[in-house]
Design goal:
By secondary structure, this protein is α/β, with parallel strands linked by helices. Helix content is 30%, strand content 21%. The longest helix has 14 residues.
């Protein structure tokens, strides 16, 4: 079980003694079995561009095994990826979000923490942008394994830590902390921001990407079919970040989320943004709220 060994060794090297068995996920044996059938192959090319690409497909013979593994690890939420000639069409065109973020932050030579990193798509792009190191944490074990599927072929890559922010500890603080698409899912958003701040170097930078609303929205039942959502206003974020000691808070981008960016695909065949919007007015959710608008905020 080489994937299990890779994960546990990487977690230990990052100061966290985590056992896969103790994570106790019912699908874990199925995921690991599919991954351990994969051939050993050295990729002839690695690209961390818009489509994170490992290999060109000439390095392996058994493409059915690879396709089976990709489908076993579905649904793929973040991407796009391509592994040995097999494209993975994720729900999110995460390259579009990254384009809105990348032009506003210098990562060269800087240590990065990505909180709620999903399957690590942005982590690969951060390395492409020159980050000296990227640490990712996400409590969803499937996303951790999706990242490992690629990392095992790249070599010398940190595995994503299967932790919540409350359970994460670091020996050193980070130059840049990212929280993208996470804040509005928090039961206590103020505590989330405070925890992010505490992981930053004194002169560090916080990159916050989140849904925003004209005035704070606490959805009683659902927002765009999501449960337990609290969406801040821009004014809320300015106030909260300045209260934490940030002396520069800049809104770098505000954009409407469209169905070309978030949609159902062959690798994520379930309902997506289209089903969360009103059939009569695409600028409203099915619950009658304003449709999703996202902001990129850089605080230092």
């Amino acid at each position: 079980m080489r994937i299990a060994q890779y994960l546990e060794t990487s977690w230990q090297s990052q100061g966290h003694d985590i056992s896969l068995k103790k994570l106790n996920h019912g699908d874990l044996p199925r995921w690991l079995s599919a991954m351990d059938l994969l051939p050993d192959a050295i990729p002839t090319c690695v690209s961390l561009g818009n489509t994170v690409t490992i290999g060109d497909g000439q390095e392996i013979d058994d493409h059915e095994v690879l396709d089976h593994c990709i489908q076993t690890l579905a649904p793929w939420r973040k991407g796009p990826f391509q592994l040995y000639g097999h494209p993975i069409d994720s729900e999110w065109r995460s390259d579009l979000k990254w384009d809105r973020v990348r032009s506003n932050i210098n990562l060269r030579g800087r240590s990065v923490l990505d909180v709620g990193c999903g399957n690590g798509y942005y982590g690969w792009r951060m390395l492409e942008a020159g980050a000296s190191s990227v640490t990712g944490i996400d409590s969803t074990l499937l996303f951790v394994l999706q990242h490992a599927l690629f990392a095992q072929y790249v070599g010398n890559q940190r595995a994503i830590l299967p932790l919540r922010l409350d359970d994460f500890s670091a020996e050193e603080l980070f130059d840049v902390v990212f929280s993208m698409g996470v804040l509005y899912h928090q039961r206590n958003p103020a505590n989330h921001l405070d925890a992010l701040c505490n992981l930053l170097m004194p002169n560090g930078t916080l990159v916050l990407e989140t849904l925003v609303y004209p005035t704070k929205l606490v959805a009683k039942e659902r927002y765009a079919r999501m449960k337990r959502v609290q969406i801040p206003s821009i004014e809320d974020l300015y106030r909260d970040l300045e209260a934490l000691g940030f002396n520069s808070v800049d809104v770098k981008n505000i954009s409407l989320t469209r169905t070309r960016e978030q949609r159902s695909t062959a690798n994520m065949p379930f309902e997506s943004l289209a089903e969360a919007l009103s059939g009569h007015n695409a600028l409203e959710t099915v619950e009658g709220h304003r449709s999703p608008v996202r902001a990129v905020i850089i605080a230092s």
